[in-house]
Design goal:
about 70 residues; mainly alpha; Rossmann fold; 4 helices; 2 strands
């Protein structure tokens, strides 16, 4: 998928999506910039519940980042 999407960087977390205190998640949020696209394999990999998901997507949107 990285080649297909021409991904510049890949972030992989082995930890649960139960909170945002995950190394790769923090690195990804610090790295992304306007025009970037964040693609997740499954919603459960980035957030544990709808409230967390909406918060993360809102933060990405404010940065001008697309979420897929």
């Amino acid at each position: 998928m990285m080649e297909e999407q021409k991904a510049e960087k890949l972030f992989i977390d082995k930890a649960s999506g139960k909170n945002t205190d995950r190394t790769a998640f923090k690195e990804m949020m610090a790295f992304v910039r306007a025009g970037d696209m964040v693609i997740v394999e499954s919603i459960s990999r980035i957030a544990r519940n709808t409230r967390d998901l909406l918060s993360i997507v809102s933060e990405l949107t404010e940065k001008g980042v697309e979420f897929v």
